[in-house]
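Forwarding the complex inputs:
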Amino acid sequence: MKLALLGNYATQFLAKPLSKKLKSEYAEFQLYHAEFNTVDFELLDSDSLLMQFEPDIILWHESTLGLRDLFYQTNAVSRENFAENYIQKIGNYLASINSKLSNCRIIFPNHSLVFNDNVFGHFSSKVISSWKFQIDKINFLLNELSVKEENFYIIDSQPNKKIEVITDYSMVVNAELHFTPDYLNWLSEEIGQLIAVFRGLFKKCIVLDLDNTLWGGIIGDDGLESIQIGNLGIGKAFTRFQKWLKELKYRGVILAICSKNEESIAKSPFLNNPEMILKLDDFAVFVANWNSKADNINQIQQILNIGFDSMVFIDDNPAERDIVRKHLPLVCVPELPVDPSYYLPFLISQNLFEISSFTENDFERTKQYQEESRRIELSKSITNMDEYLISLEMNARICPFNELDLERIAQLTQRSNQFNLRTIRYSKIEIEKFLSNPNYLTVSVEVSDKFGNYGLIGVVIIEINGSNAVIDTWIMSCRVLKRTVEHATMNYVVQRLGELRVQSLLGEYIPTEKNKLVLNLLSDLGMSKRNTNNYFLDLKKYKKLTSFINEL
Amino acid sequence: MKVTIQDLLPIFRDVLENDDIELSESTVAADVPEWDSLNHIYLVVAIEKQFKIKFTTHQIQSWQCVGDVLKELNK
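Prediction (whole assembly, two chains):
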């Protein structure tokens, strides 16, 4: 991973904690640190050292104090347009970056650490040419720019946790250090988290305890009427917490319950207490029994088929937290405050649910996992696998990439870790480029069955060089594992390649920590092994694979 | 209570990430390879935190050697 850092203050104080963090997380990390105040040159000159470095990520940090100096140098007439000119300049620099670096993301901390210079005091809201007015406008326009520019990511500079001093003016004067080391440590953490998300590591599921976590009191002892939720006791704290969890669920985070309770008692508040914000159908999995929580989280993980490192466990009981930490060290277990009023502000301050893409499809996720639970129920009653697959009545739409799906396709390349042959991450811009490139065969796969719609769950990218083709990417959602979707897709790929007069297909498996699932994918697809991870197929000799999927 | 070299030593060793550093009142930045301008700032911040004081811009700029820092701390 190559990161370039540049800015208009002594950025070595950001480079130090950031390198330390990223070096410990990514063995191949490299940093290019631009000289002080060389933004214009580095980003506009195609031969600059930064451009030659070919970074994957540019971290561009402009201090608001430095920007204010620039504002004061601007003549009175131009001040009304200061924000627009600044944004236009950034837009131009982004265009310059994009014209030279095809796969680069830009991280830009915004100017939300706004301070009114009090030249106009509160009256500045009425004075368009005032500093406060223009800097507020800049922050708004930066958001608009990031909506438009796919690879431009804003970080909110305003810390969501307490930092005693953000700017020490003595250090500004002595060392051009516009932020304290404490603040820059915080910023490094946030940037590190965003980079982890770029690389597919983010939280997908919250596993929740019930008693004294989702409501006050113990349902088994206190009973339905006496648990604290809504206006009873400190119920308001739990109500707000539930509302926030519901928002996360709408965003696509999966909610699950893991509680030591009798199942029917544990479920009763969701069914019979009207104050409960969360309802049973908000949860993808509901586990209430007397087994160890580590065992139960294991079970939830298997049902959802996601990595332990994408799970967060929330429980008020320190002993339970300890057990889970000890047995499942990859699960994130926040140390909850003792007072339930602080659960929510504390969890908000942890910013655990960072993402780098968002699609409408995310709203549907909980429903999809619930459908999955029902499929598991059905599969229990059927003993023959073929019979089960036929009973699912699966349909698939297998076709080239479609304009409307680009966001979802890019998201799949970024999120998928397990059913992912080569784990190459692509941005939406890069996916868009495949669309118009005749040297690539693109395939997207949508699947539905009688329980519901899986949506777009498969992405295949094949590079074509004359009569040879190479599998660049083969990704499927684990939710369609063992459903013969890969067979139907392979049949389609071979047919399309035949139409393009391609004669042979090469495939490579790139092993990662997480993709052992596809270790034998290529041989299952009828390709023959040439050496450890490389496979070959003479398309003339391909035998159509069995699949139980009706192609639409 | 009077601040001594022994109070400063652990801060220097921690910030400069070198446990072999020795200090005397006459030690200057040039004597310690890790004591560059970047680490100088980290030293100032660490000393301010440890002794819960705030140096003025003027004080930081007038430091020549470790003895000068001690003098400020013992004022």
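Chain B has a mean pLDDT of 89.
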